[in-house]
Amino acid sequence: MARAVSTRRMAVATAAAWIIALIIFFPILYTIITSLKTETEAIKGFNLIPSFTLESYVTVQTQSGYLKPFMNSVVIAVGSTILALFVAIPAAWSMAFSPTRRTKDILMWMLSTKMMPAVAVLVPIYLIFRDFGLLDTRIGLTVMLTLINLPIVVWMLYTYFREIPGEILEAARMDGASLFDEIVHVLTPMAVPGIASTLLLNIILAWNESFWTIRLTTTNAAPLTAFIASFSSPQGLFWAKLSAASTLAIAPILIMGWFSQKQLVRGLTFGAVK
Amino acid sequence: MATENTRGLARLMLAPSVGLLLIWMIVPLAMTLWFSFQNYNLLNPANVSWTGLFNYKFFYTDPAFFQSIWNTLLIVGGVLLITVIGGIGIALLLDQPMWGQGIVRIMIISPFFVMPPVAALVWKNMIMHPGYGVLADINRALGFQPIDWFAQFPLLSIIIIVAWQWLPFATLILLTALQSLDGEQKEAAEMDGAGFVSRFVYLTLPHLSRAITVVILIQTIFLLGVYAEILVTTNGGPGYASTNLAFLIYRTALLGYDVGGASAGGIIAVILANIIAIFLMRAVGKNLDK
User: B198 and chain A: CB distance < 8 Å anywhere?
Assistant: First the structure.
């Protein structure tokens, strides 16, 4: 009896969860389906079975040059993440292993810099970029995204490093390990998982950043966010092409995201929820 | 444990991060503050002069100003309401045993990884479009007139799109918190005859309070600056119906070339964000100390 009830309960939960999940996932699913339709099919009304043509994908590359913004996205997202890690690893390391009375304040202050509305500094940043010739350059955007995500990177690394027991370091020191040995042979192997998660999450955030990437670029350095946003101006009916470009833009990050669910929670809540 | 030597080194290692963020925080903000007192138009850059509080008065008396602040608060409040309540509901559901939970989770988390311009354009063209959108198809199938979402309910449409993007985030965090709830406590409450509602109110909700606080804090940071979703859908219109403060400043700065006016708006945005931040940081600080 009890078993029968629990099976029924499970069936109800399963049905409810699948319905909600399909509704939430529907816009993405429908985008993928539409990307496999022809343009006439795409506007013919609701239809879940496409003709599986790849012509829109070809058009996106031949007509709009998809590859260039894609490469810009890769360079900017990966570059800014690595740059941020270089700056943040020493900082997080020192705060996790030599905390002072001010460590907590510094961390909170770093978090508070994320509170500054980007748009409030749009004018000065725009003018600085213009005067230094950084507008529409990959370097400018990479530096920009490094600064924006630095607080999150420091925080994430800090919460990971803090879980490495300090006794291990002390033991290594007693055994006569130098600071260099300590970092390379003891700390790094233990820190790699945390650093990898931070890297993954930060690439996702940088890839999807949609204020500075749109405002500070025009054509040369425009990443996928700006490329897709340019589709908003009417160019006639282009549902299938838009869907193909969208699918290509989100696919890599979607797949990365699926693998980083756990790290995502931890990273974006600054270690407050694990 | 720390000797003088390592303490000095620790400070040295901290310096680049702190220095960079300090520059990042102070230099542009100081420039914005300075520009906000200047009569400075990019179309006429030779003619820059001190105007005192004129820009603030100009921004303040702009009828779009209060509407944009109200819209900003509506977006933040509306999205938080939908995502927190929806997130708790879905998290409770996902916490039940079921078949295919892994796939369900993947589907529900997915919208979070969709970049804002894609999310907005997909919703605008394929879901909410009055002619070719799926919602219009459904309406027609049921014998109703299709709704022109972005003309009739521009702000609501944007709230729906942004809520769709953030619902997965709230769900995932609340689910993680839910799963750390002690199973024995739940069983004990069940054995004592506590019904679903009282278990939820007295056991689950208090347990989730920290996660809810975190969700509200993080989302607020991002929701105050909603931009791309507006840019690619309504462009702030019709009129100023879907213009938030961020979008109004962008309009003043890069479409009106008015550096002074946009800077005054920027300073107002900073003040607004700080008022909200003070409340949030206090709440979060309290909750995080536990």
Answer: no
pLDDT in tens, B176-216: 888 887 677 777 777 777 777 888 888 888 888 888 888 88
Distance, in Å, from the CA atom of A148 to the CA atom of A146, rounded to the nearest integer, reads 6
Q: Is residue B31 part of a domain?
A: no
Please answer whether residues A107 and A176 qualify as being in contact, where contact means their C-beta atoms are separated by less than 8 angstroms. no
Domain, as residue range, for A145: 69-223+253-268
Which chain A residues contact residue B273 at CB under 8 A?
Answer: 115-117, 120
CB contact under 8 A, B11 and A94: yes
Nearest beta carbon to residue B266 from set A93, A119, A258: A119
Domain count, chain B: 1
A269 to B214: CB separation less than 8 angstroms, yes or no: yes
A108: CATH = 1.10.3720.10
State how far the Cα of B15 lies from the Cα of B37, in Å rounded to an integer: 33
- Look at A95 and B25 and tell me if their CB atoms are within 8 Å: no
CA B200, B202, B205, B207 dihedral sign is: negative
CATH number of domain containing B113: 1.10.3720.10
- For residue B268, what are the domain limits? 51-180+209-289
| A78 in contact with chain B, both atoms CB, cutoff 8 A | no
Query: On the CB side of A101, how many CA atoms lie within 13 Å of its CA?
Result: 0
Is the Cα dihedral A29, A35, A37, A42 positive or negative? positive
Cβ-based neighbour number of residue B211 at 10 Å = 26
Cβ of residue A121 closer than 8 Å to a chain B Cβ = yes
- Phi, psi values for residue B38, rounded to 5°: -110, 150
- Cβ A43–B27 below 8 Å, yes or no? no
Tokens of A43: 């506007």
Domain count of the fold of chain A: 1
Kindly state whether residue A197 falls inside one of the protein's structural domains. yes
Q: Return the residue in B5, B6, B21, B160 with the most chain A beta carbons within 10 A, the one to mutate for interface testing.
A: B21
Tell me, yes or no, if A70 comes closer than 8 A to chain B by beta carbon: no
- Please report how the helices B63-94 and A2-35 are oriented relative to each other, as an axis angle in degrees rounded to 10: 140
pLDDT in single tens digits along all 290 residues of chain B? 456 666 788 788 888 888 888 888 888 888 888 888 888 887 777 777 787 787 788 777 888 888 998 999 999 999 999 999 999 999 999 988 888 888 999 999 999 999 999 999 999 888 888 888 888 888 888 888 888 888 889 999 999 999 999 999 999 989 988 888 767 777 777 777 777 788 888 888 888 888 888 888 888 888 988 988 898 888 887 888 888 888 988 888 877 788 888 888 888 888 888 888 787 777 666 655 54
Q: Is residue A156 part of a domain?
A: yes
Instruction: Specify the pTM.
Output: 0.88
